[in-house]
Model the fold of this input.
Amino acid sequence: MRSEAALEEVRDWIAASRSAVALTGAGISTESGIPDFRGPQGLWTKDPQAEKMATIRHYVADPEVRRRAWRTRLATFDRALRPNAGHLALAELERRGHLDLVITQNVDGLHQLAGSSPERVVEIHGTIREVVCLACGERAPMERALDRVRAGEEDPPCTSCGGILKSATISFGQSLVEADLVRAQRAAEHCDLLLAVGSTLSVYPIAGVVPIAHGAGARIVIVNGEPTEMDSLASAILRGSIGSILPQLVPDGRGR
Ligand SMILES: [Zn+2]
Done:
């Protein structure tokens, strides 16, 4: 249960912290209108075709899956997704020197749009803001590829080598980027406060940063709408709307 006292206590911890890290999941972006893909009401759970688009084997093998994926990307970007109060609060924490790193499971790029420094965001599942060629590895802005789709190309190939293009996200069947995972784990080992926001903390290996931080002596603060797998490790659990809780955790200008 959320109380004013609990909020105040967490705000004091954040103000006193020497190295705080945030781990964010789908829940921080649902208030921006982005569906949770993996949850019980998730897009992939309810729509097997959507899951196919996110599975590398189907994406490579089936041009129809790719054409559908491009139409979906176009529809996603046409909705002009905006960061919400939760993303903005984390960016503000960084600006005031209270947050070293955001590790995110989200691919929407909303932390950077909210003002978090790109070099302080680890996107463990990649990003929809870029495309990558599956043959030569070249990356390019998503918007440029979408312009080609708008102009009539249903499945635009790589302009350098003709290979298959895909959003620069980690699809099912693809490995995480080792360097990103290592960076996230290092940060967890060295932080003294880990703020886990909007994640059920059930997707591994990234959920493993919570026990890593806890084992290293960090305080764990969980902000989520529902119970998580890691509630037993938490020093504080704040339940409710992420967009209303996070702004209240930003210490004021007097350093508390
Ligand atoms: Zn290529």
About this structure: The chain has two domains: 1-34+83-125+175-256, 36-80+126-169. Residues 16 and 31 are 29 Å apart (CA to CA). The chain has a mean pLDDT of 92.
